[in-house]
């Protein structure tokens, strides 16, 4: 069980930044981040998430027109912008990822099931990335205000991957953050049966 400092790092004291420090994120840290994320569980070890890390100015400028107006400054200031995507054809990897199962044929025969599974588990892996980033000392800002088709055309066209959300990564400027927004109480959000 994590001690209080671990829970603070991941949840209690972790905040979503609104601004970023000009400190770069090293490529080796992004590799380490993916290695941690890849260990999180997915159904049948399907591992459908795919990530495109945008770090340079050329990629940022290609992304800019796809961002909603309210997200431009927060996203463009991040040292790294990850396109969190999923591969609808993830099942082609299943003979290697789940060799003792006959899972590939289930998904190859049912496009709807494959899409639902890839989206759900890819989203789960995107959540793992937020927690892994925090565990490795990075801050994370998930963003859904963008033109999905434009991002797919610009960054994913040759892959067939589908964009889910953007995840800004870096070292947040945490000065002058407003108080944490309220959360629902257990009784409002949970049922014990």
TrEMBL record:
GO terms for molecular function: oxidoreductase activity. Gene3D superfamilies: NADH Oxidase. Residues 126-171 form the Nitroreductase domain. It comes from the Bacteria. InterPro entries: Nitroreductase, Nitroreductase-like, Nitroreductase_HadB/RutE. NCBIfam families: PRK05365.1. This is Malonic semialdehyde reductase RutE. It comes from Acetobacter cibinongensis. The gene is rutE.
